[in-house]
Structures are given as structure tokens and as C-alpha cells.
Amino acid sequence: MPAVRRSSRGKTSSGPVSSTPAVRSRAPRKAAGSTGNRKKAAKPAQTAATSDLPSTSSLLKNSRQTTDEWLKSARTKKGYGNYVKGGKKWLVEWTAEGRLDDEISEDAFDNEVLPPQKASRSAFKDYFEQVCGCQGDFWKYNSHIQKWEGNPVFESGFKTYYESLKNRHNRTSTATQALPMLPADLKVIMDYLDSPEAIKYFTVTQSLYFKAFVTTAFTLWTRNDELVSLQFKDIKLNLHSKTGIPYHEFSLIFRKTNKDPTKVQKYMVQIDLAHPEIDYYTHVEAWKAHMERLLGRPLARRDYVFPALASTGQIKFGEPTSRSAFETLLDEVVDKSNVLQGRNGKFTTHCFRRGGAQYRFLWADRKWSLKAVKWWGGWSSNENVGTLMRYLLDELMAYEEGFSDIMMDDRVIDRHETFMGEDEMVPVSKADLSKFEESILAKIQGLIASATTSSGSTSMNTPVRLPEDRVHTPTSSVEHPPATPSPPSLRPDDPTPPSQYIPRPSRIPETKTLDDALAYWEHGAPQKGLDVPLKDWAALFKSSEYTSEAVKLGNIQFVCDEFRVHCNGDFTTFEERFPGLRRKFTALMKAVRAARKLRGETKCRSSHK
User: Fold this and answer.
1) CA nearest 358: which of 332, 377, 381?
2) Any residues with CB less than 8 A from the CB of 298 and at least 6 apart, and which?
3) Same domain, 382 and 524
4) Given 3-state DSSP classes, what are the helix, strand and coil percentages for the chain, each rounded to the nearest 5?
5) What is the CA radius of gyration of the chain?
6) What does pTM read for this prediction?
């Protein structure tokens, strides 16, 4: 009987059964079986890939590690640890004395000032949160589960007592927040450092160092740690703008809000001779020249702008100064200069940043916008405006004078006490200039008319021709006595032209050669801050105005007189009398002094025994 089989296409066929078809019919089943085996073999690989993903416990561990590493700085964590350790020690001693059941008296805390109490509270708050798992800004008893919940530092009695301590501290203690150091304060300090009294306590190196440091911090609003590590590779000195204005360029990278080394803020600061107490340009240049003179070589890019100072006042080249070292110098200068006399507060290294920001925002003739203040100070663009305004305006009334006499006519008006600064110091407008011009032309017209009437050449009724938009019609025909035309005198209510620049004696630059001395004496050196030639100082200034420069002025004058009078202004004669000393000013001074002594032009000082 023929075998019947069904093909894979569902058709029935008949024919003898052979071994070959049987083998072929099993082949697809093997193939199907092998495919299934491959699918089953793929499952372990997928399971292995899934096992490579981090577990929940490892993620929590990593998050705790990140929090522990970055939430608080190492310095803060170390301080917190010391406070907790001290608190535990105090509690052990209290328990050992058998006083655990006693009420803790206020004397246990009143002996401390507020900052340690505040830090201790923060330390224990962090300790209870991180170690004991006490979460929340409350502390209460849950009667349902019969357990305390929250953080113990928020216990109501302690919280009230802590607020009372803060109130007592704010009302009775000296302010610890840095007062802003404004230009008026810097002027007091600069005048003191230039006085003979300061020489008793501070060397020339310390004085120049301090002037350069504080003017830089005030101008750039730098924090202390941003300035102590500054190197000369970060600054470019003696540059000139397209219009020829000299300036220095500073590059600051690692500011508090920026840790990206590719983001650099550049600051261009020009010379400011009108405000020498904040003229960072001049003071930094003088400090650099002083260091190069002591070092005996030009400063390299790796050299620190403000290296460390030894206790003897000597410079430690190659070693940056520290925060504590400058704070010590600052405290000493502030104390000796009496700049804080009669004021409640203190100056810290942050006073320059705060004072510089307030000066540019509130007091400078050209005030800056809040946007410019945020950029220059390196504040984040996301900084809260309210926080920044409190920084700029806080304690403003503490050093601002009162207004009890603001309605008095004899009060000297300050532009900051009027709404738009409308006082006589406001820049003259175009309308003001037009009124001034009309007033002057009217006076000239009256004088010319009176002069011509007296000579009979013209009539009083003949007007002087003026431009149509400048004709002034007299309101009366009062005759004036004959007079020679002269510049009219202005009435008190007439606007006055802007005051001219009044020069002041400046610091005499370093004199290295005879050529330097002659240039300073005859022409000055505006590029070095010496605007007025030295030969004119005696006629323009009082001797008390340049006391600190009197010795250098006298030395230069004697050398110049020797060259002009005794050498007839001839360099050949000079070389014959003082060979090889043209470029050695110190040796030249000694030689000139000896020559004057031989001629009997010097007076010997009487020795005091």
C-alpha cells in the first residue's frame, strides 16, 4: 500500500517511501532545533549585560561619597569635627561631676562669644543629620510612636536662647563684618605712610608693598586668595590704547565663581593721577621697580607680584605671601594711622573689595551700572540682585553724615543727598552754556556801547550787530560812565566755567643717570607721573607739600647746578671733572657734594653730643 505523506505546503502526495525523503524530513526539525538553541543561548548574555548595571546600594553609596566630598570643604569639616569633639568632652566632664541632672546654667555658654556658639550650633546640626540621621528643622515628641523627631538643635528653649545671644552680640559688641575701605580711608593711610613718623615702624619695602597691594585689591575688587598667588605672567604693564592712554592689563582666572582655566577675565586700568590714593597704575609700577632694584634683574613671568615678606621687612622672592601675613601688616598699618578713630568696626582683607564696589556704584564721578559691577567683581550672572544690593548698600548710613541741617541754606550740598544730584558740581549742559554766552555777549555789548558814546563815534541807540540767534535787547537805556572795555565781572548768580586742573607735587621717579636728573629738572616725566618739572616746585608748591621728596629734590638740584653753572652745560667739561659718573648718579652725588665742600658752598652740621 502506497504511503501517504503531507508536504510542507499542505499538499498530499503518494508514492513509495524511501530513506532519502525520511532524512530530508528530519533536517528541517534539526534546523529548527538549532535555532531554538541559539535563542536559549542568547539569554545568559543578556543577563550578564544586565548584571553590569550599578545596584541601588552602590548608587546610594556613591551619592553619599559625593555629598561627603563636595558639600562642605575640608576646612569646614575639620572645624566642625573639632567643635563636636570639644562638645563631647565638655559633656563627659559635666557627667563625671555628677551634674547631669542639674539644669545647665547660662554661665556655661556666656563665657563664649557668638562666633564659636554659631559654629558649634552648625557643627552639631550637621553631626545630628549625618551621623544620627536626625532630619528636619524642628524638634518635638511624637506621642503616637513615643519618640523624639527632628534635630535637637531646634529645641524651642535652646533656639530662643540662641536668638537672644545674637541680639545681645549685635547691640553690644564691635562689628566683625568688614567695613568698606573707601578712598578717604586710603588717603589717610597713604598720607601716614608718606610721613616721617611711619619710617620708625615701616621700611620702604613694606610701604611700597602695602600701597601696591591695597590699590590693586581696591581697583580689581579681588578677594585675598585671588591676589596672593598672582604672578607677573598674569599682568601686562605699560600698554597703550589706540588713543595713547597708558594702562596695565590684569588677567584673573580662578575667581570664586569660576574654576574653569579657559575662562579669563581681563581688566584694563589706566593711570589716575587725580586720585593718587587709589592710583593702582603708579603704585604697582613703583613696587615692580623696587623689587627689580633689590633683585638685580628684571622680574620673570614666574615671579610673584606680591611675594612673602620676612619679619625684618625683606622680600622672600619665589614664595607667595599668605593671608595671615598680610592681615598682620594691615592691622598694624590701620592701628598706627588711626584711620578707624571714633568708628565702630574693623578692616579685614575683604574691605578693599567691598569698598571698591561701593565706590564705583555710589560715590565715583562716573558711576557704574549694576551689570558692570557684577562683571567687574566676578559675581555669577545668576547672583540674586537683592543679595548684591545688600552687599553694596549695607551699613551705608553707618558712615554717612546726618541730615539734621538739610533745610539750612548755609549747608554744603552734597550730590548724593539730592534726587538727581542737582547742584553746582553737576556737569554744565548745553542750555547752561547758551545762557552763559548770552550773558557775556550782553555785558560786552553794554561796555562797547558806553565806550563809543563817550567818544561820540556812535549813538547809544545804535545796536551792536550780533548773530540773529544771539541778539540781546536791552531793557533800559541807562547811560554808563566812560570806561575802557575789559572782561566783565560775573555776578554771583552767573554760571562759572569749570575749574582748571591744579597740579600737585608727585613722587620723584628713580634717578639713575645725569640725563635723568636733567630731564626731571627741566621737563619733568609725565610718563612716570612727574607732571611738573622740578625747577618749578619751589614757585608752585609749599615746602610742606613735598616733604617726603625734599632730599631727592635737593640732590637733583645740586647735580643740575653743577652741570649748568660749573660745567657750563658742556658734557665734555663734565666728563673731565667727573669721569665715568654720567650713568652713576649715586656716585655722582657724592662727587658733587665733595666739590661743593671744597668750594665752601656747604655747611657742616654741628654734631650733637
Assistant:
1) 377
2) 292
3) no
4) 50, 10, 40
5) 42
6) 0.46
* 416 lies in some domain: no
With cell 519618640, the residue in question is 147
Same-domain status, 148 and 211: no
383 and 467 in a common domain = no
Residues 242 and 197 reside in one and the same domain: yes
What domain count does the chain have? Answer: 4
pLDDT for res 18: 44
Question: pLDDT tens-digit profile of 535-591?
Answer: 988 888 888 888 888 898 989 998 999 998 889 889 999 998 899 898 899 999 999
CA distances from 345 to 112, 187, 213 (A): 20, 18, 22
Rounded Cα gap, residues 221 and 250, in angstroms: 12
Question: Would residue 499 count as lying in a domain?
Answer: no
Q: For the stretch 242-262, what's the b/e string if a residue is b when 16 or more beta carbons lie within 10 angstroms of its beta carbon?
A: eeeeebbebebeebeeeeeee
Three-state DSSP class for residue 29: helix
Phi-psi category of residue 11: left, alpha or beta, with phi > 0 → left and psi -120 to 50 → alpha: beta
Query: 374: domain CATH number?
Result: 1.10.443.10
**Range 586-592, long-range pairs (CB < 8 A, 24+ positions):** 588/514, 588/559, 589/555, 589/558, 589/559, 592/558, 592/559, 592/562
The three cell numbers locating residue 367? 558711576
Residues 326, 76: Cα–Cα separation, whole Å: 22
Q: What are phi and psi of 239, to 5 degrees?
A: -90, 165
Q: Is residue 138 domain-resident?
A: yes
User: Do 128 and 189 have their domain in common?
Assistant: no
Report d(CA 454, CA 485) in Å as an integer: 12
Name the helix (H) or strand (E) containing 331: helix 323-337
Containing structural domain, residue 128:
72-94+108-172
What's the per-residue H, E or C state across 169-180?
HHHHCCCCCECC
Residue stretches of the chain with pLDDT short of 70:
1-51, 99-119, 170, 173-178, 254-262, 394-406, 409-432, 450-503, 527, 529, 603-609
25's enclosing H/E stretch is helix 19-51
* Per-residue model confidence as pLDDT tens digits over 416-457: 555 444 455 555 566 667 777 777 777 777 777 766 555 554
139 backbone dihedrals φ, ψ, rounded to 5°: -150, 110
Shared domain for 159 and 199, answered yes or no, is no
Whether 90 is in a domain gets the answer yes
Nine cell digits for residue 95: 557627667
Residues in the chain: 609
Last residue in a domain, options 368, 396, 424: 396
Query: Do 594 and 479 share a structural domain?
Result: no
Distances (CA, A) of 477 to 461, 467, 491: 8, 21, 20
Cross-strand pairs, 239:
247
Q: Where among 125, 142, 172 does a domain terminate?
A: 172
E-only strand ranges, 310-370: 315-320
Torsion angle defined by CA atoms of residues 536, 539, 540 and 542, in that order, rounded to the nearest 10 degrees: 120
Same domain, 77 and 164: yes
**Which of 557, 568, 566, 570 shows the shortest CA–CA distance to 599?**
566
Residue 3 DSSP SS3: strand
